[in-house]
Q: What sequence folds into this?
């Protein structure tokens, strides 16, 4: 595995510009000519001041942002899928087989108990019900979420608790390519350390991880390489 | 999963005299997919749902459906008999106003059992058991089975409508604002139920809603309508997080944040 690590993610000359129609068609460039790659078993950190488009890069790979130009190649089996050109069904298939994404905020599903939110993610990964529940319990325990909360919907949880549910959900599916957006942003040292352990395990299992880590000590513990993201020249143009 | 679309519209239009209901709609729905049609009142979303479900006749365009037996049929050229069989055996329709989708003076069990009888079930005990199973799945307790839906709350009526539709195991269900007019807690319960049915049965759904949060929670793709046309269509999170069309940007930015 270590000797010939496969390239799992390759971003070539990618740019992203928003067109803000509500502001007279103003163009807002957020990412410009970015090229990077991530191999299996490797964690790459995107660094740079806030507002430089780091989250936008992750969203382009996940397909929740469109890519303005360039290619976003994600390995699915023997082939690469270019997310920048793929249709919705291809992107959905890629998400259910290959791409994992831990966003900054938990999008709450009403009424569903937090353990079931996580088990559902494991089931999508092909676990049977017992295995899915076991994975969910193990993740919640490792992330120190009090057991009395497991049966409750996460809507009323604190920010840090919701984030741990979000992380558990992301890690319950063992995806070969993982995107992590500030996974430890509202966590204390103990829980940050638990997340570091989870990331290391996924790396050891061969996952390619691309992340944004505001916390330098977390970044140093997980990242094999850093990619510095330069702020895009903001020449705001109108139609 | 079969890659031939389940339902496929090409150039579908509906005019009411000079007024446009829907114009030049090209749309594919795939097996297991939930498609949300969003837009404001008068945008043509209910007209489009009516056309896709053959409740309305199109002025121009074509609509094809791939049946359970694998044969694709042209829905414009079905006889009334064939259309009714399709509606009974492969499709469901959830109305916003449950009174239109239920028989209000027939018991809850009767509402569900009636659909089974329509597809040939004859054994009373089996029909009653199956109806009871479905009522339980939509969280209507057995002791309400013999009550008429006139005595039910709005949320219960919607759940009964879902049971009535799901009992014949449809492949495709059309929903017109199914959570409209319900209290939010009741709405959450219904959304949870619909999500569960999609996950368990691989059902395809076309849902019309003006509520972007409902669209996001339930759907794989979102189509945004304005003045009878689809102005934008794409993955649900992409349409909401990175909308391209000026109107979609306005719609998304107008949602109140909680």
A:
């Amino acid at each position: 595995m270590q000797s010939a690590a496969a390239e799992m993610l390759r971003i070539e000359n990618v740019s992203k510009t928003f067109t803000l129609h509500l502001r007279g068609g103003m163009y807002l460039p957020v990412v410009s000519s970015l090229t990077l790659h991530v191999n299996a078993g490797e964690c790459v950190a995107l660094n740079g001041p806030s507002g430089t488009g780091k989250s936008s890069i992750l969203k382009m790979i996940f397909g929740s942002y469109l890519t303005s130009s360039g290619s976003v190649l994600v390995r699915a089996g023997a082939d690469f899928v270019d997310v920048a050109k793929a249709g919705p069904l291809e992107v959905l298939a890629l998400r259910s087989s290959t791409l994992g994404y831990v966003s900054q905020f938990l999008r709450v599903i009403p009424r569903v108990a937090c353990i079931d939110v996580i088990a559902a993610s494991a089931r999508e990964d092909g676990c049977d019900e017992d295995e899915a529940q076991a994975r969910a319990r193990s993740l919640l325990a490792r992330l120190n979420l009090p057991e009395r909360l497991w049966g409750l919907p996460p809507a009323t949880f604190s920010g840090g608790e919701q984030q741990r549910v979000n992380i558990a959900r992301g890690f319950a599916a063992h995806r070969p390519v993982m995107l992590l957006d500030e996974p430890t942003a509202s966590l204390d040292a103990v829980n940050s350390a638990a997340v570091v352990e989870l990331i290391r395990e996924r790396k050891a299992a061969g996952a390619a991880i691309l992340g944004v880590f505001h916390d330098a000590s977390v970044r140093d513990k997980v990242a094999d390489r850093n990619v510095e993201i330069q702020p895009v020249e903001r020449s705001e143009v109108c139609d | 999963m079969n890659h031939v679309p389940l339902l496929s519209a090409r150039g579908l239009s509906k005019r009411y005299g000079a007024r446009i209901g829907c114009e030049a709609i090209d749309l594919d729905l795939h097996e297991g997919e939930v498609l949300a049609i969003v837009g404001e009142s008068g945008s043509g979303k209910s007209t489009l749902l009516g056309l896709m479900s053959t409740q309305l006749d199109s002025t121009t365009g074509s609509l094809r459906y791939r049946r359970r037996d694998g044969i694709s049929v042209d829905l414009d050229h079905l006889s009334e008999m064939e259309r009714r069989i399709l509606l009974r055996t492969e499709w469901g329709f959830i109305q916003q106003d449950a009174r239109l989708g239920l028989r209000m003076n027939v018991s809850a069990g009767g509402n569900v059992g009636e659909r089974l009888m329509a597809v040939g079930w004859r054994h009373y005990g089996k029909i009653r058991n199956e109806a009871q199973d479905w009522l339980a799945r939509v969280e209507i307790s057995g002791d309400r089975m013999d009550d008429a839906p006139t005595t039910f709350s709005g949320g219960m009526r919607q759940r009964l409508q879902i049971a009535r539709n799901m009992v014949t195991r449809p492949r495709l269900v059309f929903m017109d604002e199914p959570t409209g007019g319900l209290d939010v807690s009741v709405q959450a319960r219904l959304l949870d139920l619909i999500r569960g049915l999609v996950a368990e049965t691989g059902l395809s759904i076309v849902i019309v809603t003006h509520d972007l949060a409902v669209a996001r929670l339930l759907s794989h793709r979102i189509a945004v309508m304005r003045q009878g046309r689809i102005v934008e269509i794409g993955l649900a999170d992409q349409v909401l997080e990175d909308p391209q069309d000026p109107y979609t940007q306005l719609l998304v930015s107008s949602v109140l944040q909680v």
Q: What stands out?
A: Residues 55 and 177 of chain A are 16 Å apart (CA to CA). The beta strands of chain A are 7-20, 26-39, 43-47, 69-76, 79-82, 99-102, 177-181, 208-212, 225-228. The mean pLDDT of chain A is 92.
